[in-house]
Amino acid sequence: MLSLRIAIRFLLRSPVQSGLIVAGIAIGISVQVFVGSLITSLQDNLVQTTVGGSPQVTVKAPDQGDPVVWSGRLSATLEQDPRVTAVARVRDYSALYSDGTEDAPLNIKSGELREMDSVYRISPRVVAGQARLQNDDILVGAEFASKFAIGPGDEMALRLANGRDVRLTVAGVFDLGNATLNERQAFTAPGLGRSATGFDDSEHSAVETQIDDVFASREVAAKWRRELPEVRVLDWQTQNEDLLTALSSQSSSSYMIQGFVLLAVALGIASTLAISAVQKTRQIGILKAMGMSDGAAGMLFLWEAAILGVLGTAAGLVAGRLLVWGFSFAPVSFSIEVEPGFVLFSASIGLGVALMSAVIPIRKTSRLDPIEVIQGG
Amino acid sequence: MAETLLVVRDLGKTYGTTAPTRALDGVCFEIARGEFASIVGQSGSGKSTLLNLLGLLDTPTDGEVLYNGEPAGTLSKSERAKLRNSLIGFVFQFHHLLPEFSVLENVTMPSLIAGAEFDADLRRRAGETLEMLGLEGLGGKNADALSGGQKQRVAIARALMNRPALVLADEPTGNLDTANTDQVYELFRSVSREYGTAFLIVTHDRLLAQRTDRILEVSDGRLTQDVRNPRTAGKDTPSPLRSAS
């Protein structure tokens, strides 16, 4: 490993120059790790906030208002699909609440609390009273409760769309993190939904599901459409094109930033190594005159690039983690998760960029004629 | 009669294509093992070109160079590099030591290039070579920390490290004062006698050339003289070599 030994000596001979290259790589890699992880975490948070607590693939009847029948075929399709993580059979109906001076419409979902919890995560977000849906219980949102000064244990009179009046007991108040939902949405037990919609036991307004990969909703929906032609299958991605476009644009701008940072790093290393090759022309020439092959002479700069790449990348990964740690003190609602796979990817990029930067000096060194050096003194 | 080491046969070199310059033309001579010869000539006469061709640093336009009867022209670039490493030692006017390395490391460099390990045996051999050249105790010093004469002696030690059959020296005393010039000459002589190493010394210094056994004169790219030196014939110069047991 004579080439490695000489490469180390060359680097140690110019410690400031070597240190500056390492710092350059470290800055580039730390920015890449930080920006990449920041954007990924931000998008994950945004997606989770948007669709984490709502249906991602929904099965409905082909015509609006008609029920979807919870048949053996439908249940088998959903149960056999390993990507499905939650299923909630719900009946949707609307009702009008009035406190005597003001009316407020409510969109009500009725179903088993356990099933609706799996999609809407209601129970963990109950802020007052109990997460309970027995016969005449109703769960209302925080904005609605606040607006009409209603709390757990209070009775509410509702007029259903079919004109029937019902009296329900507020079991709990939830906060879904969305003011509109907190004001308009309510949940009741299955029985009330059945009588409000006129559907029988097997009939539901919708079967709402969540899947393990939220970005697979299009594929899952397409598969179910093929297998269940008698129903309508809706996926959140198709219904939220604008959000996806925004996420995609954000990703593109992040990739551009990372790309330009890495390009700047590559140019920095390449130019410094090229300068180093010029500085070491005399040494390379004399080594070649003594019998060092072109390949071994070129290897000197490959080793230099590899050493600088490894040191710079390692320092960059540490600096990137420090930036992420520093970000944890920022007043934002999410934290940055650094994925090991992304760290590995960044490390590979750092090393790869460094090695590629050695191409010019390697070519220059390989072509160097020792006679030029010997005669030049 | 000594065995032939080097054969130069009708050697020629032309530089350039649009305005070709004939730097060397029809040069023929032979060098025997252990021979102690010099090449003299004016600046631009072609002697450095000749040395580069003999050192396999350059390829001839015409003719050929044979080492131990094998033509070097058929060798690939990497094969020439290997042959250069094993067969030839170079001493230049400028010492060309590597400032990143110690004296000992500089001396061992040809062996390391040949694939040797920097182990105790190699260090011992390098130490012996340094001692032979009066440089004992300097192995650990950085090459930059030596005087001009010491640097040139380290360069000579490096050239001798692989025990080459031929040492090509290009103006080896060009930057040295008279005392150091004498010392270098005596060293060359002693090594030649001790190890049977052939020396081919390119020099402007007529006095130095006249102390070699054979003088080859190059003029306008041609070998114009090839004479045995009657003054050195049968002369036994006292050896400055130390015991290298």
What would a concise description of this structure say?
Chain A has 15 helices and 12 strands. Chain A is an alpha+beta fold.
Q: How would you portray this structure in words?
A:
The complex is a heterodimer of chains A (377) and B (245). Chain A is α+β, with helices and mostly antiparallel strands and 377 residues long. In chain A, the strands form two sheets. In chain A, strands 3-4-9-6-8-7 form a six-stranded mixed β-barrel. Chain A is elongated. The longest helix of chain B has 18 residues. With 245 residues, chain B is an alpha/beta fold. Chains A and B meet through helix 1, helix 11, helix 12 and helix 15 of A and helix 2 and helix 3 of B.
Whole-Å distance between the termini of chain B?
29 Å
Helix content of chain A: 55-70%
What's the rounded overall pLDDT mean of chain A?
89
Percent strand of chain B: 25-35%
Structure characteristics:
heterodimer, A: 377 residues, alpha+beta, 6-stranded mixed beta barrel, two-stranded antiparallel sheet, B: 245 residues, alpha/beta, 6-stranded mixed β-sheet, 27% strand, disordered C terminus
Detail the topology: elements first, then pairings.
The complex is a heterodimer of chains A (377) and B (245).
Chain A: H1 2-13, H2 15-52, E1 57-60, E2 68-69, H3 72-80, E3 84-98, E4 103-110, H4 113-120, E5 126-129, E6 137-141, H5 142-147, E7 155-160, E8 165-174, H6 179-184, E9 185-188, H7 190-197, E10 203-204, E11 206-211, H8 217-227, E12 232-235, H9 236-239, H10 241-279, H11 281-289, H12 294-327, H13 340-357, H14 359-367, H15 370-376
Parallel strand pairs in A: 4-9, 6-8
Antiparallel strand pairs in A: 1-11, 1-12, 2-10, 3-4, 3-7, 3-11, 5-8, 6-9, 7-8
Chain B: E1 4-15, E2 21-32, E3 36-40, H1 47-54, E4 62-67, E5 70-71, H2 77-87, E6 88-91, H3 103-113, H4 120-132, H5 148-160, E7 166-170, H6 178-195, E8 198-203, H7 206-209, E9 214-219, E10 222-228
Parallel strand pairs in B: 3-8, 3-9, 6-7, 7-8
Antiparallel strand pairs in B: 1-2, 1-4, 4-5, 9-10
